[in-house]
Specification:
Layout lengths: L7 E7 L4 E7 L5 E7 L5 E3 L19 E4 L2 E5 L6 E4 L6 E2 L7 E9 L4 E9 L5 E9 L8 E4 L4 E7 L5 E7 L9 E8 L5 E10 L4 E6 L5 E5 L6 E6 L2 E4 L19 E5 L2 E8 L2 E8 L5 E3 L6 E8 L2 E7 L6 E6 L4 E7 L14 E6 L5 E7 L16 E5 L13 H7 L4 E6 L8 H4 L9 H15 L8 E6 L1 H12 L5 E5 L5 H7 L7 H5 L7 H7 L12 E6 L8 H12 L4 E6 L9 H19 L18
Pfam families: PD40, Peptidase_S9
Protein name: Peptidase
InterPro entries: 6-blade_b-propeller_TolB-like (IPR011042), AB_hydrolase_fold (IPR029058), Peptidase_S9_cat (IPR001375), WD40 (IPR011659), Xaa-Pro_dipeptidyl-ppase/CocE (IPR050585)
């Protein structure tokens, strides 16, 4: 079964004695569990069922736990409260029951015996307000004291080691944090209240990521003011560059709890950055700005935590899935703590990614990873190019990575080539590449997916007559646009996809409620453009069949998006199949769901492309599709 034994590794934390992480377990209904590896190597679950260590702030969550001493503080995804878990004790609530309040990005202010967190409050009319609050650990306060307010969103609250200053990233609608955000610093009184507040960095064309205080109370952060997310320091009220690379030390902050660097000492940083889509690991002397690159076996690195010479991260490579990885910076040794996927495949069957750059519209270069079909038990006929699955990542401000994924290997072991496309708008290639999509969503992304297909065809890596496209969320929109407005692909499969842009803009959740202002244009002035780009209004041109999946619990993209698409296709007599899942949300997590989807998708492509399958799979009925 495709995902039965997998877990999703989401966050890590490092103390002097233990390693902690969160793993989402599909076999436990997608419950997120905090796991601890103790000094003696014993691994234990730190929270019992049914507690679920996850946040729902911004709907995508993250930043769901922190540790102080041996006490774990976590957000519960079920009721939204913060709990404390002392060793050998059941979890105890820190915040009161309140269905309209959620928390994320927890840190501990040990001196004042309180938590600092981002709080999200929804009133009875559905209006949402965010603030950075202080919550007493010992005595419950119904709401907590507000430390930062006045902005639409906050992220990365960071307390200086001496407890005198608090940094935070803030931004306002209609911007997203990777477009425009600000770094604010408050001076705190002895009682913890805010004494003075100032803006340190940021602006309309600048994105701030991950402020951190060094052990000697100096502030560092990541900014893309040069077009690339680089490291900076703030000393003597002056912003100074620490790195100046054409590389990315930052990420799109879809979730809380992200981290790319930490302090080995007051004068040395250990960091990861992305260059041409691949991760690098580096030690930086902050005084001299000298960098020393480390031999690193991983192609993707995230959630970096540093405590002296001990480093913890989530990392993966082309032959190995994402894993919790520890690194001894003194001896320069890596160790796998926990892998997300058991290595159940024979190495002879694993298809490795080939990094490709290919020409696209207006003389631009786009990026992606090609996976050739590979199965030791089957050989393709001589001179025949394989059918192609083009994969389009979500976001759309996100990226695909060259890391072992069972999803991709599922297709390559069954005779398909796969092209994982980092279309214009993807992260990891600098701000100008990210900004290619601004105002052009549904155009640039589709152009790049088609350009990738043409490139592969010209190099005999894929058969363009047997190319299909698939995507989730925003990637599903691109897939639909590709078959609604172009004729390159023989079929499209979507997961929780967008079909009506204006309807999404008016109905989506608070965090993304103005996201499309930048990707398309603000409403109502761009109403005609929204309709022009929405596949659901242009289905008369569609000739390729569509298979659509959607989770009924999706709070990001309402199921009405898929329902409207399927209804319209059915009425027009066009080929369409659909399956909805009552217990699934925006990201499917149940093993049975994933197995059902992939079998149905395989059967769908086999039918459309006239491929004979050596295995029996359960198909989905495709309406209006000739046998």
């Amino acid at each position: 079964m495709l995902r039965a034994q997998t877990v999703s590794l989401q966050e890590v934390f490092l103390t002097a004695s233990s390693i902690y992480w969160i793993e989402e377990r599909p076999e436990d209904g997608g419950r997120c569990v905090i796991v601890e590896r103790r000094p003696n190597g014993v691994i234990v679950d730190r929270i019992p069922a049914p507690y679920d260590a996850s946040s729902r702030v911004h709907e995508y969550g993250g930043g769901a736990f922190t540790v102080s001493g041996e006490t774990v503080f976590f957000c519960d995804g079920g009721d939204g409260r913060i709990y404390r878990q002392d060793p050998g004790q059941p979890p105890r609530p820190v915040t009161p029951a309140d269905a309209l309040t959620r928390y994320a990005d927890l840190i501990v202010d040990t001196t004042r015996e309180r938590l600092i967190a981002v709080r999200e409050v929804r009133d009875a009319n559905g209006l949402i307000e965010h603030a950075v609050v202080a919550i007493p650990i010992v005595e419950r306060d119904p709401m907590g004291e507000i430390l930062f307010g006045g902005h639409d969103f906050f992220m990365f609250p960071r307390l200086s080691p001496d407890g005198t200053r608090l940094a935070v990233v803030a931004w306002d609608q209609p911007h997203m944090p990777w477009d425009s955000s600000y770094l604010l610093v408050a001076t705190l009184r002895d009682d913890g209240g805010v004494n003075a507040l100032q803006s340190v960095a940021g602006g309309e064309q600048e994105s701030i990521f991950q402020p951190e205080w060094s052990p000697d109370n100096q502030l560092y952060f990541v900014s893309d003011r040069t077009g690339w997310w680089n490291l900076y320091s703030w000393q003597d009220r002056e912003v100074r560059p620490v790195t100046a690379l054409h590389a990315e030390f930052g990420e799109a902050a879809w979730t809380f709890g992200l981290s790319t660097y930490g302090f080995v000492s007051a004068t040395e940083i250990l960091a990861s950055y992305t260059f041409s889509g691949l991760a690098r690991l580096v030690r930086i002397n902050v005084a001299t700005r000298e960098m020393s690159h480390l031999a690193c076996p991983f192609s993707t690195i995230s959630h970096v935590k540093v405590l002296g010479d001990h480093v913890l991260m989530i990392a993966g490579a082309d032959r190995s899935p994402k894993a919790i990885v520890s690194y001894d910076a003194d001896h320069r040794q890596f160790a796998i703590v926990r892998t997300s996927v058991p290595l159940i495949m024979d190495e002879d069957d694993v298809s490795l990614p080939e990094s490709l750059e290919f020409p696209t519209t207006d003389g631009t270069i786009a990026f992606g990873y090609y996976y050739a079909p590979k199965n030791r038990d089957y050989i393709a006929p001589e001179g025949e190019s394989p059918p192609l699955v083009v994969m389009v990542h979500g976001g759309p401000t996100d990226r695909c990575e060259p890391v072992f994924q069972l999803d991709i290997q599922y297709w390559t072991t069954r005779g398909f080539a796969v092209m994982d496309v980092n279309y214009g708008g993807s992260t990891g290639y600098g701000r100008p590449y990210r900004d290619r999509l601004r105002g052009h969503w549904g155009i640039v992304d589709v152009d790049d997916a088609i350009a990738a297909t043409i490139f592969l065809s010209r190099h005999n890596k894929a058969d363009p007559r047997r190319a299909v496209i698939r995507g989730t969320g925003a990637g599903g929109f691109t897939a639909l646009a590709a078959v609604a407005f172009r004729n390159t692909f023989r079929a499209a499969t979507t997961y929780n996809a967008i079909s009506d842009l204006a309807a999404l803009a008016r109905a989506t959740h608070h965090f993304e409620s103005h996201y499309l202002d930048g990707l398309i244009g603000p409403l109502p002035s761009h109403e005609a453009l929204y309709q022009e780009r929405s596949p659901v209004f242009h289905l008369d041109r569609l000739r390729a069949p569509v298979l659509a999946f959607h989770g009924l619990q999706d709070r990001v993209i309402p199921v009405s998006q898929t329902q409207a698409l399927v209804e319209s296709l059915t009425q027009k007599g066009l080929p369409v199949g659909t399956v909805t899942f009552a217990e699934e949300g925006h990201e499917f997590s149940h093993p049975d769901t994933m197995a059902r989807c992939y079998e149905a998708e395989l059967a769908f492509y086999a039918k459309v492309l006239n491929i004979r399958l050596p295995e029996r799979v359960e198909a989905v009925s495709i309406q209006n599709c000739p046998e």
